[in-house]
Known about the structure:
Structural class: alpha/beta
Number of strands: 13
Number of helices: 10
Strand order of the largest sheet: 3-2-1-4-5-6-11
CATH superfamily: NAD(P)-binding Rossmann-like Domain
Amino acid sequence: MTTATLRDRSVLITGGAGFIGSHLAEALVDENDVLVFDDFSSGAPSNVPAGADLVEGDVRDRDALASAMDGVDVVFHLAAEASVSASVEDPARCHAVNETGTVNVLEAAREADARVVLASSAAIYGHPDSVPIPEDAPTDPSSPYGIGKLSGDHYVRTYNDLYDLPTVALRFFNVYGPGQSGEYAGVITAFVEQARDGGPLTVHGDGEQTRDFVHVSDVVQALELAATTDAVGEAFNVATGSSVTIRELAETIRDIADDDVAITHTDGRDGDIQRSLADVSKARDRLGFEPTVQLEDGLTSLWNDWA
């Protein structure tokens, strides 16, 4: 495994009290000065590791960002409205947080001369024409969330070109791991919780939808690599390069739980993407990224944490 180790840097993590951000803060806090900037709309102060500083703030607040950014070397911009359904219900708020918020982060970083690593998303691709999906695949997002992520992805790369600000966009596919919770946590957390409660595991549609699930520890690896790479002004897929159907996922979790819980099917969800699988060769070649957690191993560890 190739990893980068950030040392003796001043690091700001927007959304650092959330799922991915808190794992990143935990990985960095022993060797760096870590400041978490979060409004706690989805994260919680208790997620922030000891040793990290914490500022309650909103990325829509330019003055608060500018103050927090003072003296920072690297900004990991993870704060976002992460719910697709919430973005559909209130696209104006999603725009303000995900697009205007990203520009606010970039402007503050430009003043501070700080590198920016953005959490982009596979949602920018929409319904892909074919899989695996390379970074130069057509982008056709199907929700305000996806549009916002695509806009931010463009902004960070354009800031590199226009202002010589070092930036990297990481397009996360389906991230899972310990500490993921809440209404929008994802299908793996839902299945684990349903199995823990005796089932049934509820599959939307026929279960033939495919997803590329990547463990949060591998996402942290990619974030660290992006903070040190010379390949700035670029976007990279972060995933495993392998996929599983949702039905197979449910069956695997049932087997790990060692319980004969039922698997039921409900109506499919409007707009649900049928196939998702990343081409991660660019991240391997340019970042040195190598996913290390096999899905069954990650699911087993997650189940043992719950049990």
